[in-house]
TrEMBL record, chain A:
Domain of life (superkingdom): Bacteria
Protein name from the UniProt record: (Fe-S)-binding protein
Residue span, Cysteine-rich domain: 3-83, 127-221
Lineage, broadest ranks: Bacteria, Pseudomonadati, Bacteroidota, Cytophagia, Cytophagales
Pfam families associated with the record: CCG
Sequence intervals crossing the membrane: none
UniProtKB/TrEMBL annotation, chain B:
InterPro entries tied to this protein: FTHF_cligase-like_sf, LUD_dom, NagB/RpiA_transferase-like
Top-level taxon: Bacteria
Taxonomic lineage of the native organism: Bacteria, Pseudomonadati, Bacteroidota, Cytophagia, Cytophagales
PANTHER family documented for this protein: LACTATE UTILIZATION PROTEIN C (PTHR43682:SF1)
Residues of the LUD domain: 92-187
UniProt organism field: Hymenobacter ruricola
UniProt-recorded name of the protein: LUD domain-containing protein
Pfam family of the protein (one): LUD_dom
Automatic annotation (TrEMBL), chain C:
Region (Disordered): 444-465
4Fe-4S ferredoxin-type domain: residues covered: 291-321
PROSITE patterns: 4FE4S_FER_1 (PS00198), 4FE4S_FER_2 (PS51379)
Alphabetical list of InterPro entries matching this protein: 4Fe4S_Fe-S-bd, 4Fe4S_Fe_S_CS, FTHF_cligase-like_sf, Helical_ferredxn, LUD_dom, LutB/LldF, LutB_C, NagB/RpiA_transferase-like
Protein name: Lactate utilization protein
Length: 246, 188, 465
């Protein structure tokens, strides 16, 4: 199994520890992932801003970079969703189709491909799980409150399997955090307010560690937590899981 | 006018997608009991009262609405005779209308009321209080069964589910917006 | 003025924003409870979607079937290509009656066509009889929600308005008593109404009848007391069969407010003897939307408002921030079809979270359409130039590994070196309004990776020549 690691630009530059944790966690689960150095971006920031045409060369570059791997794993469901859903704009060559199908969010890869949904290890903290919309509603990695009252999902199961962990019961289990890519600056007021409300739900219900599988939402929420100097630690799920698994 | 008609139809024809199939709608059965009907109706502000046969209709109404002075009904001699020609002024004074319902819907507490049972089209909404008399064997599970059983909708007819209500001020529920302030379904 | 600027105004009153958000979230929760209670709900959504898709694919035929059936029922059918014609037809019918007093129940179409000001200008008294509509009519405001038109107001606001217009006690803000005052006031209007205008929720091709769903009973009261009923409908209100209503009536109220069904589901098929019924069928841009394959699904909308109640942006920015008759996610995909320039910011007023798509009872792919409108707007140069050129630049950078590496390193160094005050100055960086920037690490992931012992042979990626 040839697995490539896709590290989105903002993780590469600002959260290298998340890329490292992803790589190490996969290694512990028996998968050696490679990091093709010529990778750049999935093109989502441009496309979501209405510049899909300008993103096409980026899509092509992405496909060329990853076409020879069986799987492309990223600690960011949003990028994966973009590759799967919006690379339909490219000519659907065998390589394009392959890469679209091969792209996986890290947690989805662990659950669906590696078929792991429990992990040995302890994390004795109260953990608030942030469900990122693209992973949840886009990639169906978790149940949606629009459909069912049952709160279930891939990451929830993995986390729940850890010893000593307590998962926060949020008032709003899956409301968007307001990051939204360029939305976070073009609609800065609403974006901030959404993020503040999301964090407030965690504070109200006792979250000590706020986690999720999409670093972009977490970057936004962490920015709010730090600005308001709240006693909450924000960690990508890869960091938690990599930390507990021996 | 007909120029617009032709233009709209031509544009709709030119711009519509290739034909897509019309699905068959299953009937989706379910609980069709009077108990479900009653509890759903209670949840939307209505009440169910059981009659021991139609003979007990009038005494039951006297118990339920002791203060109703102006009553209208095709089922017994009310104090105000109403028909399709009755004037607005008279209709506006009615306290209680007692009308036969045709079909009850257990999933939502609605009762089908056809024009033929209304005396006047405005009566069921202009009356201060409304009582619908329904044979409990005519309760069906869902709207699918209800529509399947309707022979047609006549000139006018409606499903009535509970009393008139609104929540337009701060989402606070207020019973008695413009139509009947209360709704009781008398089952027999 | 764009959506973000109007939203910022709304956000200024933080407590009211909280209240607005929580009130609509409560409606969303009621919707959830009602939906969970129907095991076949998702199946019903799929059926509704298919019925609507089918109808759109035969729209011209169903419209004609509907017209013929309605005429056979003794109903006058009129066709209006646009808002102006719609208004003129309605005024004409009113004048033919020699009438001056009109009662109107809720109709988003007449809002869209700005019927009220038109009729008033021509000497007709128009009274909106839905409570929420009446409140905003007194205040001379537009509805801020399609189902809950006055949801932007608190009871104290309504109390003030009623004190001014209905003479209720100053400071009275009890919803029960305010509603009672409106009931008395509107009864008089109903009794005096000569012509009643209603909207249409569903128009049944098979029977030629129209269905109007209300909780208050105002449509029934108005129509059945007046001499003439005028029902105004967009061409997309058609459904093929009476029994299709089984599907739609089960979805509509549950999605809208969490009720199992609206209080009144009224079928108007023939005029009462001696009275008149008119139906005005309106296009006003709808056939154009039908011709846009990416956007035609927006015509499936049954105006339940669920996408507004669930939208985290709408709940915090209020309906007026959209500056369009239909606000919220669905408004953001309908409005550019009407005026792309004016409404260019609306498709960007979304995080594309997708919740709207998942609550929509007729399965409109709302968030995908938002994404697609962004592309149309981008191609039409309707996005801010700075954004566009920034994106073009990024496109070139990100398509090239070498330039990209430099850019990222530069940004990271700059972050580390620039003092907090400069990178966080709000004019300089909208991010910093409420958020800290990430603390820049010493090395990037790729720098770290390059220093690791390299794993076994990697596939040789093919790079462009
Ligand atoms: S788009 Fe869907 S959810 Fe929104 S109002 Fe229309 S039918 Fe309801």
């Amino acid at each position: 199994m040839k697995v490539a690691l896709f590290v989105p630009c903002y993780i590469d530059q600002f959260y290298p520890q998340v890329g490292i944790a992803t790589l190490q966690l996969l290694e512990k689960l028996g998968v050696t992932a490679h990091f093709p150095a010529q990778q750049t971006c999935c093109g989502q920031p441009l496309a979501n801003s209405g510049c899909e045409r300008d993103a096409l060369p980026i899509y092509q570059h992405f496909v060329q970079t990853f076409q020879d791997y069986d799987y492309v794993v990223a600690p960011s469901g949003s990028c994966v969703y973009h590759v799967r859903k919006h690379f339909d704009k490219l000519d659907q060559t065998a390589a394009v189709q392959h890469v679209r199908g091969a792209a996986y969010d890290l947690i989805d890869f662990i659950s669906t491909v590696l078929k792991v949904d429990t992990l040995p290890g302890a994390f004795p903290h109260k953990v608030g799980l942030h469900l990122s919309c693209h992973g949840q509603r886009g990639l169906h990695q978790a149940n949606e409150s629009e459909m069912t009252p049952v709160r279930d999902g891939q990451l929830r199961r993995l986390l729940a399997s850890l010893d000593g962990i307590e998962l926060t019961h949020l008032n709003r289990n899956d409301e968007c955090c307001g990051f939204g890519g360029t939305f976070c600056v073009s609609e800065a007021g609403i974006s901030a307010r959404m993020g503040q409300d999301r964090v407030a739900d965690h504070v109200l219900n006792g979250t000590q560690v706020l986690t999720g599988s999409d670093m972009s939402c977490l970057m936004h929420l962490e920015g709010i937590v730090r600005r308001a100097k709240m006693p909450i630690r924000v960690m990508h799920a890869a960091e938690i899981l990599n930390g507990v698994v021996a | 006018m007909s120029a617009s008609r032709d233009r709209i139809l031509a544009a709709a024809q030119a711009n519509k997608p290739d034909e897509l199939p019309l699905p068959e709608v299953p009937l989706f059965g379910g609980d069709a009991t009077a108990e479900r009907f009653a509890s759903v109706l209670a949840g939307i502000g209505g009440t169910v009262v059981w009659l021991e046969g139609l003979g007990s209709l009038v005494p039951t109404l006297q118990q339920l609405f002791p203060e109703a002075r102006n009553t209208a009904s095709p089922l017994f001699r009310g104090t105000v005779p109403v028909d399709a020609q009755t004037s607005t002024g008279i209709l506006a004074e009615i306290d209680l209308a007692v009308l036969p319902g045709e079909i009850g819907v257990a999933e939502n507490g609605a009762v089908w009321l056809p024009e033929a049972n209304m005396l006047h089209r405005a009566l069921p909404t202009i009356t201060q209080h409304l009582a619908l008399v329904l044979d409990h064997r005519r309760i069906v599970a869902t709207m699918h069964q209800a529509y399947a059983q309707l022979p047609g909708t006549g000139g006018y007819g409606k499903f009535v589910a509970g009393p008139s209500k609104t929540a337009d001020i701060e989402q606070s529920l207020v019973i008695g917006a413009h139509g009947a302030r209360s709704l009781v379904v008398l089952l027999y | 003025m764009n959506h973000a600027i109007r939203a910022d105004k709304f956000l200024l009153d933080a407590d009211r924003t909280t209240w607005h958000d929580e009130t609509l979230w409560f409606v969303r929760e009621k919707r959830d409870k009602a939906v969970y209670g129907v095991p076949e709900f998702q199946e019903l959504r799929e059926l509704a979607s298919q019925i609507k898709n089918h109808t759109l694919s035969r729209l011209d035929l169903y419209l004609q079937e509907f017209e013929a059936a309605a005429q056979a029922n003794g109903v006058h059918v009129h066709w209006a290509a646009d808002a102006a014609e719609h208004n003129a037809i309605i005024l004409d019918i009113i004048r033919q009656q020699g009438a001056t007093r009109v009662v109107k129940s809720k109709s988003m179409l007449t809002e869209e066509c700005h019927l009220n000001p038109y009729l008033i200008q021509h000497g007709i008294e128009v009274v909106d009889t839905d409570l929420g509509e009446r409140i905003i009519q007194f205040r001379d405001e537009a509805p801020s929600h399609i189902v809950l038109p006055a949801i932007h107001l608190k009871k104290e606001d309504v109390g003030d308005t009623f004190h001014t217009h209905l003479g209720t006690t100053k400071g009275e803000s009890d919803p029960q008593r305010l509603t009672e005052a409106a009931r008395q006031h509107l009864r008089a209007k109903f009794l005096a109404g000569q012509v009643a205008i209603s909207g249409v929720n569903f128009a049944i091709a098979e029977t030629g009848g129209v269905v109007v769903c209300t909780n208050e009973g105002n449509a029934d009261l108005g129509v059945n007391l007046a001499q003439v009923h005028i029902a105004a409908m967009g061409i997309e209100k058609i459904i093929p069969r009476l029994t299709d209503l089984g599907v739609f009536t089960r979805l509509l109220a549950r999605s809208a407010t969490g009720q199992p069904v609206t209080t009144y589901t009224s079928h108007f098929t023939k005029p009462a003897p001696g009275k008149e019924m008119h139906i005005v069928i309106v296009d006003n841009g709808r056939t154009q939307q039908l011709g846009r394959p990416d956007f035609r699904a927006s015509l499936k909308c049954i105006r339940c408002g669920a996408c507004m109640n669930t939208c985290p942006v709408y709940r915090r920015s209020g309906g007026h921030s959209y500056d369009f008759t239909v606000p919220g996610p669905i408004g953001a995909i309908l409005s550019p079809n009407i005026d792309m320039k004016k409404h260019a910011s609306l498709p960007f007023a979304s995080t594309l979270c997708g919740s709207c798509t998942d609550v929509c009872p007729v399965k409109i792919d709302i968030h995908t359409q938002l994404y697609k409108w962004r592309q149309v707007l981008g191609e039409a140069n309707e996005i801010p130039a700075s954004k566009k050129w920034g994106m073009k630049f990024m496109g070139r950078v990100l398509a090239s590994t070498r330039v990209y590496g430099l850019g990222g390193q530069f940004a990271r160094r700059a972050l580390r070196l620039l003092p907090h005050g400069l990178t966080h100055a709000t004019s300089f960086n909208a991010w910093a309004v409420a958020r800290e920037l990430p603390a820049p690490p010493k090395q990037s992931f790729r720098e770290w990776y390059a220093k690791q012992p390299q794993p076994a042979p990697q596939p040789q990626p093919k790079l462009p020549a």
